[in-house]
Amino acid sequence: MLDIGCGAGVPIARTLAERFCVTGVDISGEMVSRAMVNVPGATFILGDIMSVEFPPCHFDAVVAYYTIFHIPREEHPELIRRIYAWLKPGGYLQATLTRISEAPYTEDDFFGVTMYWSNYGLKDYERILEEAGFTILVSTVIGHGYRESDAIPSERHPFILARKD
Ligand SMILES: C[S@@+](CC[C@H](N)C(=O)[O-])C[C@H]1O[C@@H](n2cnc3c(N)ncnc32)[C@H](O)[C@@H]1O
């Protein structure tokens, strides 16, 4: 499985690595260093997901949790096409998306660093996925963050499961 924007590898890559062979990609050297320590059983690559190379039909599944909206939105259709190419036929994409379209913006102090967002709305992503060849199996909403299941989430995000047919 490929984990796009794997961050420090917790909880996603670590949870997946309990059952699957996991490759994580992140553009931050600090995140990749932490992920290597946190999830020694997985493979981590330092790189931009828009320029890393994988063979066609290589992964059974790709996940992207809270990552796509940090990449310039005009690149999102190309990212979805890249993911489609990397998946084996019948492979799955699971991703958090965004409900509304927002022009690129930055927040100066997001937990101490400048953070960038850029995203389309859910209907746009559903069209982009279908144009790339995906079948959307589930389109739902999840609470942001990885808290206890009974904690009230501070925000919610669309969450899709799609299959390469
Ligand atoms: C909000 S964090 C989410 C981390 C992890 N997926 C999670 O759910 O905890 C977004 C991550 O995406 C990474 N990222 C942003 N742009 C990227 C890009 N173009 N290629 C690869 N990783 C990227 C960031 O460095 C960051 O670690």
Q: Summed up, what is this model?
A:
The chain has 165 residues and is α/β, with parallel strands linked by helices.
Description of the molecule:
The chain is built from four helices and nine strands, in the order E-H-E-H-E-E-H-E-E-E-H-E-E. The protein is of the alpha/beta class and 165 residues long. The chain has one domain: Vaccinia Virus protein VP39 (Rossmann fold). The strands form two sheets. The chain has a seven-stranded mixed beta sheet with strand order 3-2-1-4-5-9-8, with helices on both faces. Strands 6-7 form a two-stranded antiparallel sheet. The longest helix is centred in the middle third of the chain and has 11 residues, at 76-86. It is globular. The model has no long low-confidence stretch (mean pLDDT 95). The structure holds S-adenosylmethionine. Residues 5-7, 12, 25-28, 31, 48-50, 65-67, 70-71 line the site of S-adenosylmethionine (SAM). S-adenosylmethionine (SAM) binds at residues 5-7, 12, 25-28, 31, 48-50, 65-67, 70-71.
